[in-house]
Write a structure and sequence with these properties.
The chain is mainly α and 254 residues long. Helix content is 56%, strand content 0%. Helix 3 runs antiparallel to helix 4 and helix 8 packs across helix 9. The relative contact order is 0.12.
Length: 254
């Protein structure tokens, strides 16, 4: 399905939101797509009865175990973010815990996610001549700036071909299983296949948004559908991602 879009309007929205940089922490008392809301909505369903979070002492053993595991993952992800400036989706992690222990949240597995992927035994360095050759080949084949490809790889995986995100994105350019399948990538952990597929996808986005790099990066990080349907709600994570890639790109050109 092709979604109607206005590249100029999208670009202006991203510029505006990059300037504003909203970093408003969600209040525990407010509803929304956050860790607190997930617990508030799911914990009562474990027993099928209403149970406000203010009555934590009334939680049974199963609920306490569920809560402690979700809280542990939330804390670990925030520590990881602080140390490595890498955005983990805490809500996704919490949802997985709730699924494992309560069986209340379903995340259907697509056929693409069942593709067998082989993990490489040796990580390639960002200075590896072989990887640089692959990047240059991909840049030439798909007519994309090689340094832009390198910058995306740096932001996505820090040049680690075996990187896997909590959402399931794979390899150097962090291809999602469905995207990898559409691009004809059979093994997303193979640097050659991953970079060729990622560069092809990046070129497709650049063409879609008339060469507007920020828009292409926003879609690469957040998804085409999200960008074009909810462009006025660009997440802080995506804004940060765009700025990171641009910073890497400018440093590489210097």
């Amino acid at each position: 399905m092709v979604i109607s879009r206005d590249v100029a309007d999208l670009s202006q929205l991203i510029i505006t939101q990059k300037r504003e940089k909203p970093h408003v922490a969600a209040s525990p008392g407010k509803t929304g797509n956050n860790f607190y809301s997930i617990l508030k909505d799911i914990l009562p369903d474990v027993q099928g009865a209403s149970l406000p979070l203010s009555e934590m002492t009334a939680l049974n053993k199963e609920q306490l175990l569920l809560f402690s595991r979700a809280l542990q993952i939330q804390m670990n992800s925030r520590l990881y973010n602080t140390m490595f400036n890498n955005a983990l989706e805490s809500n996704t992690l919490a949802s997985k815990v709730l699924q494992d222990y309560a069986g209340k949240i379903s995340h259907p597995i697509s056929d693409a996610s069942k593709i067998k992927q082989e993990m490489p035994k040796i990580n390639q360095s960002k200075d590896d001549a072989g990887l640089n050759q692959i990047i240059n080949q991909a840049a030439q084949k798909h007519k994309v700036d090689a340094n832009l490809i390198r910058s995306v790889i740096k932001a996505e995986s820090n040049f680690n071909p075996s990187a896997t995100s909590p959402k399931g994105a794979m390899g150097l350019m962090q291809l999602m299983p469905e995207t990898a399948k559409e691009l004809g990538v059979n093994n997303a952990y193979d640097p050659q296949e991953n970079v060729m597929g990622g560069a092809r996808y990046l070129k497709m986005l650049l063409n879609r948004y008339d060469g507007q790099v920020d828009l292409a990066l926003a879609a690469y990080n957040w998804g085409i559908g999200n960008l074009e349907k909810k462009s006025d709600r660009l997440p802080a994570e995506t804004i940060s991602y765009i700025e990171r890639v641009n910073t890497y790109y400018n440093n590489m050109k210097a």
